[in-house]
Design a protein that fits this description.
about 70 residues, two-stranded parallel ribbon, 2 strands
Length: about 70
């Protein structure tokens, strides 16, 4: 088996073994002003994708620090 075939087989096996991981939640923090609309968007996004959005309204300064 030449090195190109071995590399292709190894890469295919690695992709199948590790696959792609799907995030279950996306987390962010920032300004309090947009929180109400972000909360509505988060509900709709979870309903459509099954992925949660967790936004903490801690103020824009706190969001920048994080």
């Amino acid at each position: 088996m030449d090195s190109r075939n071995f590399a292709a087989i190894f890469l295919a096996a690695a992709c199948m073994a590790f696959g792609s991981a799907q995030a279950l939640d996306i987390t962010g923090a920032g300004a309090t002003f947009p929180y109400p609309i972000y909360a509505k968007w988060a509900q709709a996004y979870r309903a459509k994708t099954g992925i949660g959005l967790n936004y903490q309204s801690i103020g824009s300064g706190g969001g920048i620090k994080q």
